[in-house]
Write a structure and sequence with these properties.
Blueprint (H helix, E strand, L loop, with lengths): L2 E4 L5 H13 L3 E7 L5 E7 L1 E2 L5 E5 L4 H8 L2 E7 L10 E11 L2 H14 L12 E14 H4 L3 E7 L5 E9 L12
Antiparallel strand pairs: 1-10, 2-3, 2-6, 4-5, 5-8, 6-7, 7-8, 8-9, 9-10
């Protein structure tokens, strides 16, 4: 499938609106981390997010992904609605940046964000867990209802949640084939 690039910049407000809708589409995310020796790992977690697009979650500090973040803060997060049907309008968001365990005031702030999305948090004994924050620098959105079929939008995320369009890629199936390349 050929990939075309559009030179048409998208307004930041449109990207932000789509990103917020995508982050609200699921309470679960996949957190990809890399060990100190370069081995990839993925973990599923319940998450909450801030207006600046920071992602926060709870985890046990000795878990593989928590150890990975201490060794190498580089990470990526994917959020998507898992009830989607193949061949229908698909959507999801990928975020690329870095993550870390939070302490003191930052942990308290993350707890507030998390408790807003998950009010049952206050009724749990979570003494063994810590809050983690992922700060994205780039996002890639795929929302066929908003942007059109086969269109991926990539944007930079600056401090304070400011978003700037980077590129739009259009994936087109060859004539006579399905998106999987079968005839």
């Amino acid at each position: 499938m050929p990939i075309e690039r559009s030179k048409q910049a998208l307004p930041a407000a449109r990207i932000i609106t789509a990103a917020r809708r995508l982050l609200n589409a699921s309470t679960l995310c996949a957190v990809a981390t890399v060990s100190g020796s370069g081995r990839a790992h993925v973990h599923t977690a319940y998450f909450a997010w801030t207006p600046e697009f920071d992602i926060v979650w709870l985890s046990e500090p000795s878990a593989r992904h928590s150890r990975n973040l201490r060794a190498n803060p580089s990470a990526a997060i994917s959020v998507y609605d898992s009830s989607q049907t193949w061949g229908k309008s698909d959507r999801g968001i990928q975020l690329f940046g870095s993550g870390r365990e939070l302490v003191d005031r930052a942990a308290g702030e993350a707890e507030g964000v998390y408790a807003e999305r998950f009010p049952a948090l206050a009724r749990r004994d979570l003494v063994a867990y810590r809050f983690y924050r992922f700060r994205p620098r780039r996002m890639k959105l795929f929302d066929e209802r908003v942007f059109g079929e086969g269109i991926f939008v990539t944007a930079t995320i600056r401090r304070g949640g400011e978003v700037a369009w980077d590129r739009t890629e259009i994936v087109r199936a060859r004539e006579g084939t399905t998106p999987t390349g079968e005839g």
